[in-house]
Amino acid sequence: MEAWIIYEQEDAEKNKAYIDWCITEADSLQVELKLVYVHQVCFGIKNHQLFIEWNHSNSLPDFVIMRTINDLLSRQFEFMGVPVYNAASVASVANDKAKTHQLLAQHNIPMVDTLFLNRSSLIEHEFHEFPFVIKEVAGRGGKQVHKIESNQEVKDIIPQLNGEQFIVQSLAKSGKDVRVFVIGKQIIAAILRESNQDFRANHSLGGTARPYLLNQLEKNTVDKIVELFPFGMVGIDFIFDEDNRPLFNEIEDVVGSRTLSKHTDINIVRLYLEFIVSNLK
């Protein structure tokens, strides 16, 4: 069996150890996993048919692990019969915070009050309750999240925003969240992330992390979300209200596993590849 793991080259260089880990685990499962850079893939329509080429070859893999956000490429593979993990249907929702909240709200998943605004609406909107946060809908890793204390701060932050679509949310309990790692329909583990220095608890932004045992309410909430998607592997993030009840925050499509690997003995890559191989049989 042959598979591709697809990255932007810059991201692949930062994640070499993870990629090597994936290739090693795949080899133990008799899967030849090849690293493919997005810029090396040529795809489109030729002679009225969809095509994909890599290194001037049109030979396609048995499956793809998509480690970049490229909905069009994911759909091209799927239309040509190649399974993609995560599926395009997952990526297209999970990588847009507005779409994710819109979908989950229909299924009564608890979350903070949220406004959907484009850039012009954000400029014109008069806010009355502070503080709140502005998030770019395609932001990742907490880096496109801004805490706002006044209408003047909104005006000041707008030139720094890259996107055109945003969500504006009331502030939950600061500096604490939980990431739940999910493969398929199964909860694998949860990691509590905390920060005393920032309202964001992201480990990459200096927060601490430790294993976390989900209570029954939290498990039930995750299970409700899991039933809505054909997940491969994702991280589902929750923040907390003042009574420590979970509030949905986001789904991480291209989820990293540094904190999980650092604080547990769980071989998440092995579990993921075993799930994929079993799913394809």
From TrEMBL:
Residues 101-277 form the ATP-grasp domain. Gene3D superfamilies: 3.40.50.20, ATP-grasp fold, B domain. InterPro entries: ATP-grasp, ATP-grasp_RimK-type, Rp_bS6_RimK/Lys_biosynth_LsyX. Keywords: ATP-binding, Ligase, Metal-binding, Nucleotide-binding, Ribonucleoprotein, Ribosomal protein. One of its GO terms (biological process) is SOS response. GO terms for molecular function: ATP binding; metal ion binding; ribosomal S6-glutamic acid ligase activity. GO terms for cellular component: cytoplasm; ribosome. The keyword Magnesium does not apply. This is Ribosomal protein S6--L-glutamate ligase/gamma-F420-2:alpha-L-glutamate ligase. It comes from Gracilibacillus kekensis.
